[in-house]
Amino acid sequence: MKITRCLHAALLVSDLERSEHFYGTVLGLEKVDRALRFPGAWYEVAGFQIHLMIASAAQSGLDNPEKWGRNRHIAFSVASLEATKERLLAHNCPLQMSASGRAALFTQDPDGNIIELGEL
Question: From CA 73, how far away is CA 70, in angstroms rounded?
Fold first, then answer.
């Protein structure tokens, strides 16, 4: 596996308006357009994005165990998704292919943190 760059971090928030104030006004991050239909807001700094998504309460653990990408996660670009998948399976790592059909998968670190790996 060869990781080529970091793409974004997703954060679950309980109050989108309060979070938009913090990230947009307090931190001064640029809000960017998003094409997804579920509630949230995207911000970008130097090509790195922070994705804010609504959750009933910000908490640890998986808020959405069915779709790992709808949980807090860090995303990395990889040179080869197939090689990445093979390596993860060889190390008995859990994985879930992206539900969107794009060339991406999700895995969990030993603490259950979600890592997205995608081939761009």
Answer: 8
Round the CA-based radius of gyration of the chain to a whole number and report it: 15
- SS3 for 25-87 is HHCCCEEECCCCCCCEEEEEECCEEEEEEECCCCCCCCCCCCCHHHCCEEEEEECCHHHHHHH
Which residue segment(s) compose the domain that 98 sits in? 3-119
- What are the C-alpha distances in Å from 103 to residues 71, 81, 98, 117, 120? 18, 7, 7, 9, 8
Residue 106: which CATH number? 3.10.180.10
Could you read off the pLDDT of 66-81 as tens digits, one per residue?
A: 999 998 788 888 999 9
pTM greater than 0.90: no
